[in-house]
Amino acid sequence: MTATxxxxxxxxxxxxREAAVVAAACVLCLLGGTIQVDDTLTAPPAAAYLVALAxxxxxxxxxxxxxxxxxxxxxVGVLVQPLGLLLTPPIVAPALIAAYAWVLTAPTxxxxxxxxxxxxxxxxxxxxxxxxxxxxxDAGRMxxxxxxxxxxxxxxxxxxxxxxxxxxxxxxxxxAEESREAEARRRVAEERVRIARELHDLVAHxxxxxxxxxxxxxxxxxxxxxxxxxxxxxxxxxxGQALDxxxxxxxxxxxxxxxxxxxxxxxxxxxxxxxxxxxxxAGLEVAVRExxxxxxxxxxxxxxxxxxVQEALTNVTKHxxxxxxRIALTWHRDRVTVTVADDGPGGGGAPERPPGYGLIGMxxxxxxxxxDLSAGRRPEGGFLVTVRLPVPRGSGDDGGxx
Length: 402
Description:
This protein is α+β, with helices and mostly antiparallel strands.
């Protein structure tokens, strides 16, 4: 849509271009009008000025009404020969300009071709000599004049296709850019969720242990100072480990090129005894039972199993109001099942809090590696967390529980 279509004033450059087009059409009409019907060259007669004025007066409306401009310029061309002038390509220049404008803006190619063909046919018939035989010279002039609108239409159609192609390329580039931005946003969101999950597991576990150890130190501060000192040393060790793990996790947010200390391997079930020792020092008695043949797990599955046990025991320490928990690892041919159970009443008389993200995070971790997790209260009391994680075939012995 142009400025003229919206009723806005044309920019200065467009106004100058329009004036140049009209002036060029007038000059061509006057040059064509110097040729009389008898093929003599003379000064432009009054009819030539009339033709130039009438044809060029229609051109400024070709933006708003291109079909009307084409009809007007064609009608003037048809009247040229009766006015005593010879219809030549220069004198139909306004019709060519109008044909070009119409094809550029026509709603369909069929309508564009039909209007241009009619204009060409009208000019072709108007070029035929009124009297005498048709010479080769006349036939050539008729062909050139009749084909001129068609040539202008072909050029305009090529320009139209070119513009459509460039618009399609720009649209595809814009869609590709939007797709890249959407993909980047999706990956950033996934990374944020992953880091948030790691931070939750880390902070919830370590801070819960430090809190439990501090409560033990406070309870025996007066009666058993040695026990209090031991608990305080455990608090220092626990918080120091929490700071180290927090530093390693936050290091994931470093920009590319930043120097970072080498990160230690991700934890797995091989470090389960160390994890259980931290809970035992906090006063939670943990029993472990294992069935089947132990096999190595992929790093992602191994880390998931470790984090789920860590989060489940952290929830026992925070909410179960019990000092005992049981862990069972059952190895099957194609999966490992990990259960964490307690027999505590839960609640704990704590003030009402909004639900946390522990169970949500455990379920997301299990789903991310192709497993599934269920959690809920046991009929006999306590809480049970069960997670089933896949074990790839061929990793170690295929034996184990069925």
